[in-house]
Design brief:
Elements: H1 4-22, H2 41-44, H3 52-55, E1 60-67, E2 75-82, H4 101-115, H5 125-137, H6 142-146, H7 148-163, H8 178-192, H9 194-202, H10 211-216, H11 225-237, H12 241-254, H13 257-262, H14 265-273, H15 280-305
Antiparallel strand pairs: 1-2
Helix pairs in contact: 1-4, 5-7, 8-9, 8-12, 11-12, 12-15
Length: 306
């Protein structure tokens, strides 16, 4: 069980999932399927040998079938059965000497999984690393772009150190776990808009139905990439960044309150799971308003009791 071959095949299981996920990263823009300016020479000039996706690429199998019709002559037909790892819409590898941005992301995620065996790779991490890498890789300074992979890996590793508990199921019920974060969001909605909270509670529209993805992936799947980067700019600038994440999510709910109050369970689930396009400045301004209100209430509480 501890042999090199066992490790190799276990790694391939992880790599296969990473490969599938990064090929579908941010499909609404062409960035990740385009070539990087600074491919790794050792990899792109290895005739495909050192490319990670080659390890999990499925083969083309040729086979023949013997057909017999009645008492006639048997007919041997050659067929090709292709079992591709690519499905419609997935990004394809580039030619020798070139490397796509998604291949760079794949390498970073696989390396992270190898360096963190206790956690490994969990689906959704590709959505976290994508905006970070994109930010570095499109920098106006060419020298910064050249080191985008290293800079991204450093930042991603540090960010995961802060949010890794969201991806560990055994920690869901702890104060750093995702269930605790969802309960804080419920409390925030209840405090700021009791009518909306009552409506969601009456319909038994639990936060797990929509906010699990919001909180775990830091809203990276709810908005376009430029909007995600704008939200993260405010989020990471705040010393209480994950408190502010709660306020942003609460703001999203309050900004569609009229729809929620008039909608039934089905329409409200659909609304929150597919959040409508909206100017993120409105959301951030509302989040700041909620944050200031909470700080004011907390100060008043302290003045009364201490």
């Amino acid at each position: 069980p501890d042999s090199s071959w066992s490790t190799y095949f276990k790694d391939n299981e992880v790599l296969l999932q990473i490969d599938k996920d990064v090929r579908r990263l941010c499909p609404d823009i062409s960035f990740f399927q385009s070539a990087t300016e600074f491919p790794c020479p050792e990899i792109v000039n290895s005739n495909g040998v050192k490319r990670l996706h080659k390890r999990v690429e499925q083969s083309v199998l040729k086979y023949s079938t013997l057909e017999r019709r009645g008492l006639g002559v048997a007919k041997l037909s050659n067929e090709i059965h292709r079992s591709d790892s690519l499905s419609c819409g997935d990004y394809a590898p580039l030619s020798e000497g070139c490397e796509a941005h998604w291949e760079v992301v794949e390498r970073m995620l696989f390396l992270y999984a190898k360096l963190n065996p206790g956690q490994g790779y969990v689906q959704g991490m590709n959505e976290i690393i994508g905006p970070i890498y994109h930010t570095f890789a499109i920098d106006a300074d060419k020298e910064y772009r050249q080191h985008a992979e290293a800079d991204c890996f450093f930042c991603f590793t540090n960010l995961m150190a802060e949010i890794r508990d969201f991806f560990i199921r055994t920690l869901d019920e702890t104060e750093s776990g995702i269930n605790y974060m969802m309960s804080k969001l419920c409390d925030c909605v209840k405090r700021n808009d009791p009518a909306v909270w009552t409506q969601l509670a009456r319909q038994e529209l639990r936060p797990q139905y929509y906010s699990f993805r919001w909180l775990t992936l830091l809203l990276s799947q709810e908005f376009s990439l430029p909007d995600v980067e704008r939200i993260w700019d405010s989020l990471f600038a705040d010393p209480q960044r994950f408190e502010f994440l709660i306020y942003i999510c609460c703001a999203m709910i309050l900004l569609v309150r009229e729809n929620l109050l008039s909608g039934d369970f089905a329409s409200n689930v659909k609304l929150l799971q597919s959040f409508p396009p909206m100017d993120v400045s409105l959301i951030l301004n509302k989040a700041v308003e909620i944050s200031n209100s909470h700080c004011s209430q907390h100060t008043t509480f302290l003045q009364k009791h201490f």
